[in-house]
């Protein structure tokens, strides 16, 4: 009996330590673009925003325990907002920036500024308001994404002729090129352990792409898909076991998930509408 009780107690503790997640995404199923939330199985879908304008680009922030997103009103007035996982508004001061990628600890934000076809990456210190240039090579440098541990960020740059993925180390200021192929890298998502980045890459002239993973220390690349399908925005789950992605299948734009090795594809949205920009939201 003693062993049975201990066993049940251990199962209870393990169950309590498990994490679960929801998926936020963009959709125009109600007529204009809003942000919705669903469970991992795609059974329950509910609107988080009901703005008569457009809402898009949901990004979970650990420090603020909320979803940061972009918004336009009916007069095309742009703002960056913060809300709870229930859709309730929270205060957010973006210091007047039109791009605001908040760090996991909430202490700084990345943003880009353009000069003709060139784009550079800067960092804003939230406490002091100080702005510092980080990536200033004369090229397109965009799509910055924080590593979950907040020590690095990835970005896309065409400084060597085509889009490649780079890693910026905040402690050293080192910029390290992670990919070196003829393919065009586009969408990226960090693994939760900050050791690798999942990304999409397409060959010139092809209407499909594939998903890969690159180790940020060794630059070793692992191919995840090889199926002549098109994968768009991607997001690795908080436990590192799944990838959520936006894809067009049979003429419809939907949200799907698959295992981190590219197997077990599962469709999450089914309403005939546009669905994109999936973002995992930890719920436990």
From TrEMBL:
Residues 1-24 form the signal peptide. InterPro entries: 6-blade_b-propeller_TolB-like, Peptidase_S9B_N. One of its GO terms (biological process) is proteolysis. Keywords: Signal. Residues 146-242 form the Dipeptidylpeptidase IV N-terminal domain. This is Dipeptidylpeptidase IV N-terminal domain-containing protein. It comes from Flavilitoribacter nigricans (strain ATCC 23147 / DSM 23189 / NBRC 102662 / NCIMB 1420 / SS-2). The lineage of its organism: Bacteria, Pseudomonadati, Bacteroidota, Saprospiria, Saprospirales.
């Amino acid at each position: 009996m003693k062993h049975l009780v201990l066993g049940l107690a251990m199962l209870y503790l393990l169950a309590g330590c498990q994490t679960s997640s929801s998926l936020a995404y963009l959709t125009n199923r109600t007529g204009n673009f809003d942000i919705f939330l669903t469970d991992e199985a795609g059974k329950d879908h509910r609107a988080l925003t009901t703005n008569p304008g457009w809402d898009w680009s949901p990004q979970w922030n650990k420090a603020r325990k909320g979803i940061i997103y972009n918004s336009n009103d009916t007069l095309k007035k742009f703002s960056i907002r913060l809300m709870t996982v229930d859709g309730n508004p929270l205060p957010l001061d973006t210091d007047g920036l039109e791009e605001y990628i908040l760090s996991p600890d909430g202490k700084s934000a990345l943003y880009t500024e353009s000069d003709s076809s060139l784009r550079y990456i800067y960092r804003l210190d939230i406490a002091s308001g100080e702005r510092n240039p980080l990536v200033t090579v004369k090229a397109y440098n965009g799509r910055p994404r924080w590593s979950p541990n907040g020590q690095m960020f990835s970005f896309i740059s065409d400084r060597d002729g085509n889009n490649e993925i780079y890693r910026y180390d905040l402690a050293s200021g080192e910029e390290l090129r992670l990919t070196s192929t003829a393919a065009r890298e586009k969408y990226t998502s960090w693994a939760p352990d900050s050791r690798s980045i999942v990304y999409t890459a397409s060959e010139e002239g092809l209407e499909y792409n594939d998903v890969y993973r690159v180790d940020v220390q060794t630059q070793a690349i692992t191919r995840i898909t090889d199926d002549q399908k098109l994968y768009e925005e991607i997001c690795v789950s908080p436990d590192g076991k799944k990838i959520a992605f936006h894809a067009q299948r049979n003429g419809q734009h939907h949200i799907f998930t698959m295992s981190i090795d590219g197997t077990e594809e599962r469709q999450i949205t089914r309403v005939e509408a546009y669905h994109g920009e999936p973002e995992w939201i930890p719920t436990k």
